[in-house]
Design brief:
This protein is mainly alpha-helical. It has one domain. Helix content is about 70%, strand content about 5%. It has helices spanning about 1-35, 40-65, 80-115, 140-155, 165-190, 205-220, 230-250; strands at about 120-125, 130, 135, 195. The strands form two sheets. A two-stranded antiparallel ribbon has the order 1-4. A two-stranded antiparallel ribbon has the order 2-3. It is globular, with a radius of gyration of 19 Å.
Length: about 250
């Protein structure tokens, strides 16, 4: 009986377990930089961690959208076939939106590196590998992961219900990404993710971050992709990554 009770309680505590694991991984990574240990390992794991966390968050929300019971109110009394078709439509839209975010952000980063006219003059270092035409593949994943995380935080801040005006929600999401970038930029330089010309982060970088974030999130909201609650893991991923970069900023690498 005790074994059955334990098995029954496992699904209830599984989300907390995943959140704890996320904080442990990123917190430990940041602490390693502070203590100056496992530095070669951290450089090797940088891209896999970025890609892995993004795929993890993406999969969490994809499963929410794929459930037929998580549909629009008008479909809740509908047939199972209608619910399944609606779920397929939502998941397909989410896939296409994700591909657009990945390819769009990667393309803008490529133009930024080539021209120096978008974010400012910068170049990528040796940490984030592999790269495609001078831009690390992990960058597209990073944009997608941080968008999902910022949308989750905005959902919570707005009492888990977006305002009817997607412009307001997109504004909050974009501001969260800019705040995140303020913490990330000095840490990224320390970690040799990228380097700025003259070792100075230009103000236009943050302006472009806001505009891109606003555009991607507004499109997702207009497509109706984020009416369902994103799992809390994504919300905690935002703060866990802030913790990581804060620890890196405190370290004298």
């Amino acid at each position: 009986m005790r074994t059955l009770k334990t098995i029954h309680l496992m699904p209830k505590f599984f989300p907390q377990l995943k959140i704890g694991m996320l904080y442990f991984l990123l917190g430990a990574g940041g602490l390693w930089h502070v203590l100056h240990i496992f530095q070669p390992t951290m450089r090797i794991l940088a891209s896999p961690m970025i890609i892995g966390v993004t795929v993890w968050l993406w999969g969490e929300y994809w499963h929410v959208l794929a459930k037929p019971e998580n549909g629009e109110t008008k479909l809740k009394r509908g047939s199972l076939t209608r619910k399944i078709n609606f779920s397929k439509k939502r998941t397909n839209t989410f896939i296409w939106w994700s591909l657009l975010v990945f390819s769009g952000s990667f393309g803008v980063e490529l133009l930024g590196v080539k021209t120096g006219h978008i974010f400012g003059v910068y170049f990528y270092g040796k940490t984030l590998k592999p790269s495609l035409v001078q831009v690390p593949i992990a960058i597209g994943f990073a944009w997608l992961g941080m968008l999902i995380s910022s949308i989750a935080v905005t959902q919570k801040a707005l009492r888990e219900k977006f305002t009817p005006n997607p412009i307001v929600s997109a504004f909050f999401i974009a501001m969260l990404l800019v705040i995140f970038d303020l913490f990330m930029e000095p840490a990224a330089i320390k970690l040799d993710y990228w380097q700025w010309s003259g070792n100075k982060i230009p103000g236009q970088n943050y302006v472009v971050w806001f505009l891109l974030s606003f555009l991607f999130s507004y499109l997702g909201l207009r497509l109706g992709l984020f009416k369902e609650k994103i799992p809390s893991l994504a919300l905690h991923a935002y703060f866990a990554q802030l913790l990581y970069f804060t620890l890196v900023n405190l370290a004298s690498i």
